[in-house]
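Section 5.1 Outputs to date
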Amino acid sequence: MNYSKQREVVLDALINNVIHPTAEKLYSIIQIEYPEVSKATLYRNLNQLAEAGIIKKIDGLEAPAHFDHNTHPHYHFICEKCGRVFDVSSDVAKDVVSKTEEETGFKVTSHEIVFKGLCKDCQE
């Protein structure tokens, strides 16, 4: 992937905002310092970064998609009250792939686990 200043801006904004932002939220963050970055540029770079495996596009959490700079194996927790998305260590279900393959005979190539409930802040 060739270097581009816009791609660097998008990636830096994502790394510095570990809230699993949507493209719209990321756009509002980027616009503060880089008003010249268009939505089209943002979407194009997010898709290119995701296709290259540099970031993770999280579909299925809720519409629209969220983006995550953490590409290591992990799961997600969505707070049903405030809507924030949190990382959850994959250690909470470390045998899920092997157990699924043993029980079903399927070959798992990837998986996503999403927990929903109330975060610590919203429980108070």
